User: Which sequence fits this backbone?
């Protein structure tokens, strides 16, 4: 696969990032139902998701839900997803989502970790090119505090310092590419308890969660404003029900080995059998599509020119480094399909490729313009 | 129902409507008496009373007026509490009273014995018409009431001071009865001789009546009543005198010839009977029980003319009628049975001439009937009496009530006048302070108060933002939640295994799991809300702290809290002191009562939100939630199902505890806001209310000695004594002003 649109993800360990990717995939697939376009993961990502899904299925069967049992990532993880034509797999729009520990921004911490020293250059490059930064937030850690000590511990458990640094760094880097999109997604996860719109009146309306995110992430939001001096960054608040069928039952702040309180939460299934009902996860893909399409329109003239370029030029271009503009042109103009097909079958199928390309573009357009989940807010 | 009956029913209804008002008035006069008693209490001292221009004898006199009012109202009460129209039957013995009662009531010789020769009626019954109940109820004396009401009156008649202390002493015969000399003297007295003989009869027959002195109420069949109410036959060797043990006899039976439901016949005791205090008992009967008295006169032989005894009997009725007109209250019934018509005519003429001042029925209406003829009695006596009462009772009631009210009004005026004079005198006791000086003092107190109260409010405001202010509460709330979780973990107090066994039994009995699950959730929900209230102790302590801060901020005014350590008691005492000021301070009292009314319990602050949080535990919520809940509560009807249900109910219960935690966490802030709001409102009312300065002047005037004590404790004690005296007099004045609306 050629260059993908890049997304970075930064959040504390065990917040449920794999679950989030799985939910994004599932809900986007549901939105594409009935179209000739699908969303898929590459093999490596699919393997990770399959393991995760197996664990979830076992939990559902056992009627015992323990989110930490679903495993968590300690190092960098790259998830690769793509939107693609169902019968012309090479005609696709790929996204690469990199999850990395926020602490690696600190040179001292990197120095102490061989893994960090190895992976950091790649991470840095990925962050620089990311058109979207996703910040997953553990909604329970955010909301289940009562005392001053618990509120103090929450800062550590949400990884606020690291998140703040990453956001600041990313926003600054985005200044270097003022023509490219930049979307920050604040994504509280496991929000079932804090909304009353997904199967149960919980006593919360969602307003409380939004208020808490604005308060606790005030510095992060300020960093976005302050650092992005040469461009605008779109901030999207998307509270996600990653399951929809589980609900926080109890939560206790307990002392942990590092001397800071940590939240131990227990969850229960809302019904038997549990029926998943994901909310707002597809926002990530919708926002990506919208960012890409907007960027493409701005580059339309260049893209138009690219469609008339000679086959030989196309062939040579396949190996070229493209940057975002190149990626846009390459994938969204249909060039990617034409490059592949022309090399193999000449110009005879150009019309069909054009059709498939239009379908893919239409699907992206549809995803981008489709109404967001009612919970989603643009801040 | 006849017009007469309707009118009589109306009378009874109007009486009932008055009863509660009369009771309230009696209570008011009793309170007047109590306060007058408190004024005589040793704590106040004669010196203080004298400064108020009152002597102890004045207070005794005023208390007598209060008693007089209560007694007058007591007579009204005796009248309006009656639920029947009562006809009293009076007259000398052997004139046909019992025969008349039998004709009216349909009772026979077993219940209302009659006889020739000596009298046979030993106990006077009260006989009530009843169509649904027939029988007699006999109330017996206790030993003490027998001594007080039966024996001692004999000794009183004899003028003997030393009386037997108990029945054993009486029956041993070791007293006056054993003193032969005295006995001879008493026997020689024509008045006391028969009484002495009667007393000996009583003593000698003790074995027949003493065992009945139990104070019991006995239901006696009508055919067995005679032995309880009649004298024994003359010829009895060992006469049964159990009638002596009877304190009261009430008979219910269906009167044969009346359509009036609520009617009673009262056989009045006394006249001419060989018992002590006969007249007194007669009058008490007339007062309390009778709406109209029928004086029966049988003109036989030498009894044909109106005698002085008859006149004396009518005089008793005259005394008892109160404010009612005599013509309304009493009638003379000439018993014409087995009489020479000439005798009847002679009596008729005599009554016209000597009783009615030559005008028929001028003062006493005269009826004639053969009392042994029930039909004649019905037409000539009962119908006539009832027709008369239907018209006369309203005016009799009005006259009696009006008379009592007028008497009370006179007494009230007399007492209020003296109280007013005393209060005026007290006002002059303290060296009068000029109006300007009082205003200056009041303003200085208000200024001090404003400053200290604002500091107190400032503290309360700071508590709103202090992070640690709720820590004590959160700790307690966490303890309570931990206790509740422990209760859940022990199978909701049943033990997990037992809970599951009960579940299983219920599944099998009902072939369904949801009924048990629903009942379990309901009881858990109720129990959770109940157990969460255990945080109240912290909240109440917070409130006490709030009041304590207020008491400290009161400065000079805090003197009125006395030495009370408990802040609530201290503030209540202050309110009590403010209430006792002769010139009222309603706004200030309101302000303090308002701040004392602050509610700080769990229920008031958060119960509605807690109920919302516990919605989770409703077994059948509407919509999609209901489907989810049903799926959780529907389990297999075996041990595994019971275990699964236990797990789920436990999980839901724990979530309920957790969810309420969020609401509970808001309590410290809510409480702080409530306290601040109460404090601000209180301060505003006390310092800046419309009447604030005017009332503070009154407070300063009344409590100057306490607020600015000049010469130590002695003055303070006098000041407090004066204030107490003022307070009592003010209360007396207030009680006197609280008149109830009894209508004549």
Assistant:
């Amino acid at each position: 696969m050629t260059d993908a649109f890049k997304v970075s993800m930064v959040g504390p360990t065990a917040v449920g990032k794999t679950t989030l990717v799985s939910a994004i995939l599932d809900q986007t697939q549901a939105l594409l139902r009935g179209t000739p376009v699908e969303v898929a993961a590459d093999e490596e990502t699919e393997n990770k998701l399959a393991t995760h899904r197996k664990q979830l299925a076992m939990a559902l069967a056992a009627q015992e839900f323990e989110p930490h049992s679903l495993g968590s990532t300690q190092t960098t993880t790259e998830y690769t997803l793509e939107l693609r034509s169902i019968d012309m797999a090479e005609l696709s729009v790929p996204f690469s989502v990199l999850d990395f520990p926020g602490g690696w921004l600190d040179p001292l911490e990197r120095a102490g970790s061989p893994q960090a020293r190895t992976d950091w250059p790649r991470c840095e490059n990925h962050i620089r090119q990311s058109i979207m930064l996703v910040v997953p937030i553990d909604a329970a850690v955010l909301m289940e505090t009562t005392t001053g000590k618990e509120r103090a511990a929450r800062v550590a458990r949400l990884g606020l310092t690291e998140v703040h640094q990453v956001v600041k760094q990313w926003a600054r880097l985005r200044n270097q590419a003022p023509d490219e999109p930049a979307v920050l997604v604040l994504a509280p996860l496991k929000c079932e308890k804090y909304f009353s719109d997904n199967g149960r009146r919980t006593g919360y309306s969602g307003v409380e969660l939004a208020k808490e995110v604005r308060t606790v992430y005030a510095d992060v939001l300020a960093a976005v404003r302050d650092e992005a001096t040469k461009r605008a960054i779109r901030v999207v608040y998307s509270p996600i029900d990653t399951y929809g069928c589980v609900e926080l039952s109890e939560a206790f702040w307990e002392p942990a080995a590092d001397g800071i309180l940590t939240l131990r939460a227990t969850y229960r299934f809302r019904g038997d059998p549990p029926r998943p009902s994901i909310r707002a996860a597809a926002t990530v893909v919708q926002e990506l599509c919208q960012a890409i399409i907007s960027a493409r329109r701005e580059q339309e003239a260049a893209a138009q020119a690219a469609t008339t370029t000679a086959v030989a030029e196309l062939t040579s271009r396949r190996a070229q480094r493209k940057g975002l503009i190149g990626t846009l042109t390459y994938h969204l103009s249909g060039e990617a399909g034409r490059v592949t097909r022309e090399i193999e079958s000449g110009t005879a199928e150009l019309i069909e490729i054009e059709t498939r390309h239009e379908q893919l573009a239409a699907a992206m357009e549809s995803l981008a313009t489709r109404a967001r989940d009612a919970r989603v807010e643009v801040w | 129902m006849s017009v007469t009956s309707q009118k009589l029913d109306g009378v009874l209804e109007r009486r009932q409507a008055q009863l509660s008002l009369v009771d309230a008035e009696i209570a008011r006069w009793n309170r007047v008496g109590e306060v007058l008693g408190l004024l005589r209490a040793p704590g106040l001292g004669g010196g203080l009373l004298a400064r108020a221009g009152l002597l102890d004898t004045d207070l005794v006199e005023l208390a007598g007026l209060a008693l007089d009012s209560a007694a007058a109202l007591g007579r009204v009460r005796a009248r309006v509490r009656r639920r029947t129209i009562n006809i009293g039957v009076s007259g000398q013995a052997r004139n046909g009273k019992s025969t008349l009662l039998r004709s009216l009531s349909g009772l026979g010789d077993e219940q209302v014995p009659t006889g020739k020769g000596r009298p046979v009626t030993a106990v006077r019954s009260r006989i009530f018409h009843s169509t649904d109940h027939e029988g007699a109820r006999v109330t017996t004396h206790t030993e003490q009431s027998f001594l007080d009401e039966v024996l001692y009156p004999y000794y009183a008649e004899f003028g003997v001071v030393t009386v037997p202390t108990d029945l054993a002493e009486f029956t041993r015969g070791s007293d006056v009865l054993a003193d032969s000399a005295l006995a001879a003297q008493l026997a020689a007295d024509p008045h006391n001789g028969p009484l002495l003989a009667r007393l000996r009869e009583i003593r000698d027959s003790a074995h027949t009546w003493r065992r009945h002195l139990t104070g019991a109420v006995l239901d006696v069949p009508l055919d067995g009543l005679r032995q309880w109410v009649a004298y024994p036959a003359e010829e009895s060797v060992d006469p049964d005198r159990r009638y002596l043990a009877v304190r009261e006899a009430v008979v219910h039976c269906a009167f044969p010839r009346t359509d009036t439901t609520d009617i009673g016949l009262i056989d009045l005791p006394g006249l001419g009977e060989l018992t002590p205090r006969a007249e007194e008992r007669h009058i008490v009967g007339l007062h309390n029980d009778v709406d109209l008295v029928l004086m029966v006169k049988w003109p036989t032989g030498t009894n044909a003319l109106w005698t002085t005894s008859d006149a004396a009997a009518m005089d008793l009725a005259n005394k008892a009628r109160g404010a009612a007109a005599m013509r309304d209250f009493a009638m003379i019934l000439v018993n014409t049975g087995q009489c020479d018509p000439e005798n009847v005519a002679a009596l008729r003429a005599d009554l016209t001439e000597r009783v009615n001042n030559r005008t028929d029925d001028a003062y006493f209406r005269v009826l004639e009937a053969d009392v042994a003829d029930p039909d004649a009695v019905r037409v000539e006596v009962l119908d006539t009496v009832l027709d008369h009462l239907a018209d006369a009772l309203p005016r009799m009631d009005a006259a009696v009530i009006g008379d009592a009210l007028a008497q009370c009004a006179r007494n009230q005026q007399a007492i209020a006048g003296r109280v007013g004079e005393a209060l005026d005198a007290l006002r002059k006791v303290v060296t009068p302070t000029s109006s300007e000086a009082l205003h200056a003092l009041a303003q200085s107190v208000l200024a001090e108060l404003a400053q200290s109260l604002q500091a107190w409010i400032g503290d309360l405001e700071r508590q709103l933002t202090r992070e640690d202010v709720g820590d004590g509460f959160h700790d307690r709330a966490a303890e309570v939640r931990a206790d509740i979780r422990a209760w859940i973990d022990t199978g909701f107090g049943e033990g997990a295994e037992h809970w599951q066994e009960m579940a299983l039994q219920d599944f099998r009995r009902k072939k369904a799991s949801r009924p048990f699950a629903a009942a379990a959730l309901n009881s858990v929900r109720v129990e959770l809300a109940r157990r969460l209230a255990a945080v109240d102790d912290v909240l109440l302590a917070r409130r006490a702290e709030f009041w304590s801060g207020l008491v400290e901020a009161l400065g000079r005014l805090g003197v009125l809290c006395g030495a009370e350590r408990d802040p609530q008691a201290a503030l209540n005492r202050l309110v009590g002191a403010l209430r006792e000021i002769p010139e009222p301070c309603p706004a200030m009292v309101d302000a303090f009562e308002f701040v004392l009314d602050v509610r700080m319990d769990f229920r008031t602050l958060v119960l509605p939100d807690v109920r919302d949080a516990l919605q989770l535990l409703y077994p059948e919520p509407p919509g999609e939630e209901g489907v989810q809940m049903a799926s959780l509560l529907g389990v297999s009807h075996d041990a595994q199902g019971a275990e699964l249900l236990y797990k789920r109910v436990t999980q839901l219960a724990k979530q309920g505890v957790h969810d309420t935690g969020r609401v509970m966490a808001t309590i410290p802030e809510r409480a702080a806001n409530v306290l601040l709001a109460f404090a601000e409102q209180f301060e505003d009312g006390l310092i800046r209310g419309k009447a604030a300065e005017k009332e503070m002047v009154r407070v300063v005037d009344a409590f100057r000695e306490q607020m600015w004590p000049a010469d130590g404790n002695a003055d303070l004690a006098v000041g407090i004594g004066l204030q107490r005296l003022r307070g009592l007099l003010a209360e007396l004045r207030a009680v006197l002003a609280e008149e109830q609306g009894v209508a004549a």
About this structure: The beta strands of chain B are 85-90, 125-129, 135-140, 217-220, 246-253, 263-267, 292-297, 330-335, 365-369. Confidence is low (pLDDT under 50) at residues 711-716 of chain B. The two ends of chain B are 27 Å apart (CA to CA).
